[in-house]
Amino acid sequence: MIFIERNGGVVLLRNGHQYTKIRTDNKTGAEVWRCVKWRKKCGATVTLKEGCVPSETAHICQPDYTANFIAKTKYECKKKVMTSDLASVPQTYNKFIAEIKETNIDMMHHMPSFRSVKSAMYAIRGKQFGVKKRSKKSSDECSMGETE
User: Fold this and answer.
1) Per its UniProt record, what Gene3D superfamilies does this chain match (predicted)?
2) In whole angstroms, what is the distance from residue 40 CA to residue 19 CA?
3) Assessment of whether the complete model's pTM goes beyond 0.70
4) Residues 100-114: what's their mean pLDDT?
5) Counting Cβ atoms within 10 Å, is residue 81 exposed (0-12), middle (13-18) or buried (19+)?
6) Long-range CB contacts for residues 9-12, cutoff 8 Å, separation at least 24
7) What pLDDT score does 33 carry?
8) How far is CA 43 from CA 20, 39, 46, 113, 142, in A?
9) Lower CB density within 10 Å: C or N end of the chain?
């Protein structure tokens, strides 16, 4: 069982499936997690209580270990971008990918390119340092200096 953060929420990666939390039972403390493919009619759920799985329902979707590997890897890369103060975002990404390449060469063709994840990486870095998004100025607000 691995927990990652994605889109402002927590995702559970387990046995090739991904789950999002739908509720917590206040009396027992049990958490109910639903398969992320519920819109595709997979009604599988997992109940967690104190780190154990007391109940689980069957999936109709197939497990996707590659998707879980990529989700976990992207999450770990985002954490590295947040913690590496001096290295640039591309350097951090390339170093992280090189580490993955050494241990999981067969998964490399599934890894996203820097181009496809750079916006998310820069957003995380900006959020870490409290940088606000720049808004585009209209042509009336921009000045080109004095003209003669």
Assistant:
1) 2.20.25.240
2) 14
3) yes
4) 80
5) buried
6) 11/36, 11/71, 12/46, 12/48
7) 95
8) 12, 9, 10, 33, 54
9) C
Inter-residue contact 17 to 63 (CB < 8 Å): yes
CB proximity list for 23: less than 8 A, separation 6 or greater: 31, 32
H/E run at residue 68? helix 65-83
Give percent above pLDDT 90 in the chain: 33
For the chain, what is the radius of gyration of the CA atoms?
21
Distance of CA 93 to the CA centre of its chain: 14
Strand boundaries in 7-137, DSSP class E: 9-14, 17-24, 31-35, 45-49, 52-56
Do the strands 17-24 and 9-14 form a parallel or antiparallel pair, or are they unpaired? antiparallel
Cα(26)–Cα(19) distance, rounded to whole angstroms?
Answer: 20
- Beta-bridged to residue 18, according to DSSP, are 13
Residue 61, CA distances (Å) to 4, 16, 18, 139, 142 in order? 21, 10, 11, 51, 53
Count the residues in the chain. Answer: 148
> Which residues is 86 bridged to in the sheet?
none
Domain ranges, ordered by start, for the chain: 2-56, 65-128
Alpha-carbon distance 21 to 13, whole Å? 12
